[in-house]
Specification:
By secondary structure, the chain is an all-alpha fold. The protein is 63% helix and 0% strand. 16% of the residues are buried. It has ten helices and no strands.
Length: 239
């Protein structure tokens, strides 16, 4: 997918850099808008111009609710499962989740129906939704099942992408000497007359390594249950 939508990523990155130059104090919002627009373009064929747009606010609310809810032992019913025998109307621990589920249904069905309408009009660009909807009958998925399947990248991709970029900014603040080396390589390979493009990646080994090291240094998702770190400096391939 990353290879297929390079043009989208390149466009949105340039827009975000302009936004950061014009309003640096809100750089985190600009980074979040970048990640939101990339994900919605890839998934639904629509760009995001502001974090204040309804679909973005609803998605961020859904993610926030999931994160705050997905905590083992948070609800009393986990310790006292007999509460599930109460009449459903008295199971208070369901109320917030069921309300949020209805909000999610409205959001994801709206996005699915919007894509279907644009397919009929012939105005939909190539995107994930436009590729899978024609095969919906073959897959045997209902509208709500397909809507939620498509939402997986929309729900998970925005926050994780934005957080990874924000961590990179943090790393450059803490390790300015690495930033200087990266800038030197960028100036040598790309120069000052154009923006770096994906075709430049193979000629930017230090920057590629820097990005990978940033993701290792502060991974957004936790891999493995035990925190770990090297006890002595580690050298690999001379770096």
């Amino acid at each position: 997918m990353a290879q297929t939508y390079k043009d989208t990523q390149a466009l949105e990155s340039k827009i975000s850099l302009c936004e950061i130059l014009e309003e640096p104090s809100n750089y985190m919002r600009h980074i979040q808008r970048f990640s939101a627009s990339v994900v919605t373009t890839v998934t639904y064929g629509i760009r995001v111009n502001s974090l204040d747009e309804w679909i973005v606010k609803e998605n961020l609310q859904a993610v926030k609710f999931f994160v705050n809810t997905n905590i083992p032992g948070k609800d009393l019913v986990e310790a006292w499962p007999w509460l599930l025998k109460l009449p459903r109307s008295l199971q208070w621990f369901r109320w917030a989740a069921e309300e949020q589920c209805l909000r999610n249904d409205r959001l994801y069905m709206h996005l699915l129906n919007d894509v279907k309408a644009r397919i009929k009009k012939g105005t939909i660009p190539d995107c994930l939704a436009s590729q899978v909807i024609p095969d919906q009958e073959k897959s045997g998925m209902s509208d709500i099942e397909l809507a939620y399947a498509l939402s997986s990248s929309f729900g998970a991709g925005i926050e994780t992408t934005a957080a990874s970029i924000e961590i990179f900014v943090l790393a450059m603040i803490h390790f300015p000497e690495a930033m200087v080396k990266a800038q030197t390589e960028l100036d040598r390979v790309v120069g000052g007359d154009r923006m770096p493009e994906f075709d430049d990646m193979e000629n930017l080994p230090y920057i590629n390594a820097l990005i990978k090291e940033t993701m290792r240094w502060r991974p957004v998702a936790v891999f493995g249950a035990v925190p770990h770190a090297v006890t002595i400096d580690d050298e690999y391939n001379g770096m």
